[in-house]
Amino acid sequence: MPELTVVVPAYAEGENIPRLLTALERVLEGQDWEAIIVVDDAFDRSEEVVRERAQRDPRVRCLHRIGRRGLASACIEGMLASSAPYLAVMDADLQHDEALLPKLLERAKQDGADVVVASRYMEGGDTGELATDRVRISRLASELSRVLCNGLTDPMSGFFVVRRSYLERVVRKLYGRGFKILLDLIAAARGEVRIAELPYTMRSRQHGESKLSARVVAEFFMLIGYHLFGRLLPARFFLFAAVGATGIVVQLGVLSLLFNASGDFLLSQVAATWAAMTSNFFLNNAITYGDQRLRGRRIWRGLFSFYAACGIGTFINVALADWLFIKSAPYWTAGLAGALVASLWNFFTTASFTWGGTAGRRR
């Protein structure tokens, strides 16, 4: 059994993997280690690169995932596939300094820390040549993350060593989606975690592309929502509700445009409602359910099921609000209650019938 498993999530990183494995072999010489490369299917033959290396080096293993994607879930599956007492996580893009791995491991063993983080923002660390806008985004995300892990200088780091016993303690409490596994691991402990940090300088990417996107940002907020409110409602609900708020803007805009042009309120309202539901569907498909995105012909089935669910939700909204108003509830209370119940109906119904039933579960 190796003492250290290095888990490397990889999506479209075929050019970087051989160099990374060679570097690991060099810096971990004399250590009892293995590398698990978790390849999410990008049709770039990355898995073949890893398997070819594994044929020559038994310390290298390939975990090829088809039909699912995401850095956090890849890291979790990779860590659970190992039996080593210490687990390192690092990216495949060569921006993390592999020479720090022995020091991270030694710190975990000597200090008894649950997690040892390579930090860009503590004294001695640096973001290197990372673009200024990316540094600002990272620092802003770090500040927002303080609601979950105050005191950690770089909660956005993707480079760290975690003790297996700690992973086993928190693994069932993880959000397990998105791209920020370190924040997830620490937030799941609810303060009962021993953390150490070591500084490092981030290197420049040589090949491949950054994975930053609207979905990454959305998943970050869903992660925070899960650990703050996940015991009450699925974190995904809050993103679903945010998309619904944009639908209100779309509806009012289309209503204003059509009513001013035609003077027919009913026709304008129907068209505006249809436009809002259509906008909500495509935004939810791209962001809220980006990991379960409907493609091809499935989009049309999903769109019509979304129309049906939200149409019933609209009826529930109006009927409940009207009943509460008749029962002497203030108009704003009646309206808010109708909107909330309809939102819950829309969320759980579309989770089951539009996006396949997995979205409304615990995560």
Helix content: 40-55%
The N- to C-terminal Cα distance equals 33 Å
Number of domains: 2
CATH hierarchy: architecture of the largest domain: Alpha-Beta Complex
Structural class: alpha/beta
Name the CATH superfamily assignment of the largest domain.
Spore Coat Polysaccharide Biosynthesis Protein SpsA, Chain A
By CATH, the topology of the largest domain is Spore Coat Polysaccharide Biosynthesis Protein SpsA, Chain A
Main pleated sheet: 7 strands, mixed
Strand order of the largest sheet: 3-2-1-4-6-5-7
What is the rounded Rg?
Answer: 24 Å
Question: Proportion of β residues?
Answer: 5-15%
Number of strands: 7
CATH class group of the largest domain: Alpha Beta
Can you put this structure into words, describing what you see?
The protein is an alpha/beta fold. It folds into 2 domains: 4-209, Alpha-Beta Complex (Spore Coat Polysaccharide Biosynthesis Protein SpsA, Chain A); 235-353. Helix content is 53%, strand content 11%. It has 13 helices and 7 strands. A 7-stranded mixed beta sheet has the order 3-2-1-4-6-5-7, sandwiched between helices. The longest helix has 29 residues, at 298-326. The relative contact order is 0.09. The model is unreliable at 358-363 (pLDDT under 50).
